[in-house]
Write a structure and sequence with these properties.
The protein has 373 residues and is an alpha/beta fold. Helices cover 39% and strands 14% of the residues. The strands form three sheets. It has a seven-stranded mixed β-sheet, with helices on both faces. Strands 7-6-11 form a three-stranded antiparallel β-sheet, with no helix packed on it. Strands 10-12-13 form a three-stranded antiparallel β-sheet, with helices on one face. It binds pyridoxal-5'-phosphate. The site of pyridoxal-5'-phosphate (PLP) has 14 residues, from helix 3 and helix 4.
Length: 373
């Protein structure tokens, strides 16, 4: 029996393991020096000044909404073609996510649709670099500027990518990464908010630690005991064990993004002439290829054939406004975002992670090619 090929997975080497073991032997398992070092490492690659590492990407989105002051009565524009966390973070703050449709070729938030969804209550736009391709950030920034809105990048798919030569992480007021094992680098669970704005960074730093202004590490360094809780926060801290792993993984990010692109090109070649339609790639962007998404008119048959052959195909995503929770609480439903809804019937994510071989790609292509017309 050939081995099951998952749609995504981590790559861990001996250096990663050694970095974690070294941390376990040290003094600080959490709120210690590895957290700041990891933040600096991510900021260097993302071309941005401040990083706040947190427990996961969802917590990072929540921290971003808090830092921007999103609250009851506020609306935040989000795309439907994303993981639920992109919209849930607005609900956590008592705000209302407002869905704006995506572009049919790229499935990225359509800047014109985002602008059309603006009301006097709109405070921010969260755009998602879906599948790893950066959004049209210049167009989104122009919309945000015209209407005085904050711009947030849900860049959980796009670490290591770039737009017009500018790295993902430096393209919005706050950008958010996830370090889940299927993402570009992993910390097991983990996430980070990055920003050039020192005040936003400070709000997110306090938010991840219950709303308390100093950490145990700060207090030990200063020799004092006093601390104050100045606002309501959460325990969204990440451990030094996780950050040591993340820091070790960072070295390989550029090579992994290159390899993801090579594998994606292999799929483009191998599927040419079949019924699959790849998503549109924009020439002015470095696609980070978290996912390799195609459209297929017989998506369900193709999905079943892949699974029957031990290949972990997937569907990203059920449009968020179609989830029962959203239908019940916000009254959303079919017809709200027709482009995303039409895509949902046809999209398929094929396996893509840097440890895959060219033979793995050929194996997947052979199964897709054999799906009856
Ligand atoms: C687009 C997007 N946003 C947010 C998240 C949430 O990240 P995490 O799983 O680290 O909480 C994910 C994770 O799958 C995601 O794909």
């Amino acid at each position: 029996m050939t081995q099951f090929l998952p749609y995504g997975r981590q790559c861990i080497d001996d250096d990663d393991i050694a970095a974690v073991v070294e941390t376990l032997r040290g003094d600080w398992l959490t709120t210690g020096p590895a957290v700041g070092r990891f933040e600096e490492g991510v900021c260097t690659l993302a071309g941005v000044r401040h990083g706040v590492a947190v427990a996961n990407g969802t917590a990072a989105l929540h921290a971003a909404m808090h830092a921007l002051g999103i609250g009851p009565g506020d609306e935040v524009i989000v795309p439907p073609m994303t993981f639920a966390a992109t919209a849930n973070c607005v609900l956590y703050q008592g705000g209302r996510p407002v869905f704006a449709d995506v572009d049919p070729g790229t499935l990225l938030l359509d800047p014109a649709a985002a602008e059309a969804a603006i009301t006097p209550r709109t405070r921010a736009i969260i755009a998602v670099d879906y599948a790893g391709q950066p959004c049209d950030w210049d167009a989104l920034r122009a919309v945000a500027y015209r209407h005085g809105l904050a711009l947030v990048a849900d860049a959980c798919h796009a670490f290591g990518g770039s737009y017009k030569g500018r790295p993902v992480g430096s393209l919005a007021d706050i950008s958010v990464f996830s370090f889940h094992p299927v993402k570009h680098i992993t910390t097991g669970e983990g996430g980070m908010c990055v920003t050039d704005d020192a005040a936003l960074a400070e709000r997110m730093r306090v938010f991840r630690n219950h709303g308390i202004t100093t950490t145990a590490h700060d207090r030990e360094k200063s020799g004092g005991w006093f601390y104050e809780m100045t606002e309501l926060g959460y325990n969204y801290r990440i451990t030094d064990i996780q950050c040591a792993l993340g820091l070790s993984q960072l070295r390989r990010l550029p090579g992994w993004v290159r390899r993801r692109n090579e594998l994606a090109n292999g799929y483009d070649e191998g599927l040419r002439g079949t019924a699959t339609i790849p998503l549109t790639k924009k020439p002015d962007r470095l696609h980070a290829h978290h996912l390799y998404v195609v459209r297929h008119p017989r998506r369900d048959d193709t999905f079943k054939a892949l699974r029957a052959n031990g290949i972990g195909a997937n569907v990203h995503y059920v449009p968020v406004h179609l989830h029962p929770y959203y239908r019940q609480t916000l009254g959303t439903g079919p017809g709200l975002c027709p482009v995303a809804e039409a895509a949902y019937g046809e999209i398929l994510s094929l396996p893509l992670w840097p440890g895959m071989s060219d033979e793995d790609v050929a194996r997947v292509c052979a199964v897709v090619q054999a799906v009856p017309e």
